[in-house]
């Protein structure tokens, strides 16, 4: 019994460490990730649960020229992020409200503060946001899509799949950054990757090794206490 408890404690620590060390990294080293590692991560991630095992995910893995073409198509489109249309789905509410507004602002101010960007330095903020579209210099950029005929339940399943990718990456010493910023630019992305019209671009994700020398990677988000969002009943 003691051996079993000790084994469970060790396994829990490994899993917890992968989850707790996961964060959105916004500066990567150029070190390439081999295809076998990417395949292993996606294979593990695909064990995510989905209603009636529909497995609603589709992934486009890009490197090198293809990844650069995506970046060029978006950055040369002339469409600023604040003008981009969320015409496939809306990620955020039309108008933010509490407590979500305060949390959103804390996240933005914290990131820009780590970069030394002041609250009125709009051009610098835009430049930092545009780094999304080069996948923060990660060697691997993934674009995720879902069939538009599927319903909300499949989107819930998709979230679990994405989380599995991020946790599996941590188990291999890699980091990620999930990026909804790509979704409004589906018109620019589609022709590069030959994405059919029946697929909605859900998000992108950067994958690679963290560049620990960059100040943006020193930024850490917090989490509200359990007592603010959990109710126990007996």
Automatic annotation (TrEMBL):
Q: Which residues form the Nitroreductase domain?
A: 19-209
Which of UniProt's keywords are assigned here?
A: Flavoprotein, FMN, Oxidoreductase
Q: Which InterPro entries match?
A: Nitroreductase, Nitroreductase-like
Name a Pfam family for this protein. Nitroreductase
Cofactor dependence is on: FMN
Keyword Acetylation among record annotations: no
Q: Do you know which Gene3D superfamilies this protein is assigned to? A: NADH Oxidase
Keyword Flavoprotein listed? The answer is yes
List the CDD domains.
PnbA_NfnB-like
Q: What does the sequence similarity comment in the record state about its family? A: Belongs to the nitroreductase family.
Its recorded name reads: Nitroreductase
Q: What organism is listed for this UniProt entry?
A: Mesorhizobium opportunistum
